[in-house]
Amino acid sequence: MELDMETELKRTWTEIDLDALLENYRALRDRVGPDVRFLGVVKADAYGHGAVQVSRALQEAGADYLAVSSLDEARELREHGITMPILILGHTPPDQVGELIRLHITQAVSAEAKAEEYSAEAVKCGGTLKIHIKVDTGMSRLGFLCAGEHFEGGVSRIAHSCALPGLEAEGIFTHFSVSDEPGAENVAYTKAQFDLFRRVIGALEQQGCTFALRHCANSGAVAYYPETWLDMVRPGILLYGLTEMAEELGLRPVMRLKTCVSTIKTYEAGTDISYGRLYRTQGRTRVGVLPIGYADGFFRCFSNGYPVMTADGPAPILGRICMDMCMVDLTRCPHVNVGGTVEIFGEKNSVNAMAKRAGTIPYEIVCAVSKRVPRIYYRGGEAVERKLWIRD
Ligand SMILES: *Cc1c(COP(=O)(O)O)cnc(C)c1O
Fold first, then answer.
1. Residues 85-118: pLDDT tens digits?
2. pLDDT at residue 1 is higher than 50
3. Contact present, 21 and 366 (Cβ < 8 Å)
4. Does 235 sit in the ligand 1 pocket, CB within 6 Å?
């Protein structure tokens, strides 16, 4: 495929390794076995990787379900030929129920009042809306409250919701808050969440209310809690090969962020570099300018010290990262010239380590790579597709 990306390649780009994605998918699939279905979480543009391309790859590979945050995200997938089941995890306004039915999209239902609104709309449209009941077992975000004194009431509100006309309750799910964190307290909390989820399902079954898809295992639970896999698992970050869990499971990072050197100048000792004069050269310093800044998703907290990777080894950022550019010390990288490729994260600089340095999680680093940065998709080592949002 002929790729017209000369201008973007001269600036900053990401490489999305679809082979790594598919390897991760197969490894996770093997891990959970043939009897457990697989939902790939592709919300937030597949954690910044490109929801359409990731979903296409998962659809071809035989995944069973996808999950997104909103109707807009679901619609984007349908408009790009994704035909497999899609679950919306977040809220959809009831006046969009006709659209959900038309596009064959499954909606999470987190409260009885919402179930009633959705039911009324579905009946008005003359269709059936597929729903998954969300149970709040301790995340304290969305879902029917069923803990402690709320158990009986919660169960009966779920049963009533499932029996409403125009709704087909295909699934029931819950979400863990600390399944990815070690420590006895977190293990106990996760087990208590799972136990409550099982008891809610059990009580509903006794009333004849059953679900084809019972699911709760996010990445943490796929890694550490096999007993929670039930009918379907629901990993996100593991698919993208990030977090220490992914390292432990031998999964590979899917995204690399690269830029190149646009200018090089040598300054004498005592020269102040960038906004705020945070860095002053100690001796003669060969300074490169990189056309990447915080508007591309290279956080300002990486100023002054973060080592980007050149073909000639690591090179520290000098002074503040600007909106569109930053400076790097190439004194110890004499073979790096204008046009030389620089890795912000990728094989040499892991997103996991970068996140730790920034006091955040790998999720935030990849989600923050901005829409100004083109995504270039690789398969079999070759660039097969390119996506640039701001010019399309
Ligand atoms: C985001 C999300 C997931 C995936 O979480 P990971 O930690 O990326 O595996 C699963 N379920 C729900 C409800 C989510 O919101």
1. 999 999 999 999 999 999 999 999 999 999 999 9
2. no
3. no
4. yes
C-alpha pair distances (Å), 371 with each of 67, 235, 246, 321, 338:
21, 24, 26, 19, 25
Q: Which helix (H) or strand (E) holds 280?
A: strand 279-280
Which of 43, 114, 130, 134 is labelled catalytic? 43
Query: Are residues 67 and 41 in contact, defined by beta-carbon separation less than 8 angstroms?
Result: yes
Q: What is the mean pLDDT of the chain?
A: 96
Specify whether the CB–CB gap between 158 and 209 falls below 8 A.
yes
* 3-state SS record for 208-264: CCCCCEEEEECHHHHHHCHHHCCCEECCCCCCCCCCHHHHHCCCCCCEEEEEECCEE
How many CB atoms within 10 Å of residue 265?
11
Give the residue-averaged pLDDT of 263-281.
Answer: 97
Per the CB < 8 A criterion, the answer to whether 385 and 25 are in contact is: no
Chain centroid offset of residue 371 CA: 15
DSSP structural state of residue 158: H
Residue 228 carries which side chain, given as an amino acid letter? T
**pTM, two decimal places:** 0.95
Q: What is the largest CA-CA distance in the chain?
A: 80
Measured from the CB, is residue 372 less than 6 Å from ligand 1? no
Residue 22 has pLDDT above 80, yes or no: yes
* Residue 23 tokens, joined: 């390897």
Q: Is 124 a catalytic residue?
A: no
Mind giving me the DSSP string for 297-365? T--GGGTTT-EEEETTEEEEEES---SS-EEEE-TT-TT--TT-EEEEESSSS-HHHHHHHHTS-HHHH
Ligand 1 centroid vs 80 CA: distance in angstroms? 23
What is the atom index within ligand 1 of the atom nearest the CA of 173?
A: 13
Output the CA 236–ligand 1 centroid distance in Å: 6
Pocket test for ligand 1, best of 69, 86, 89, 139 (most atoms within 8 A of CB): 89
For residues 13 and 258, the answer to whether their CB atoms sit within 8 Å is yes
Q: State yes or no: pLDDT of 389 exceeds 60.
A: yes
Please say if 43 is a catalytic residue: yes
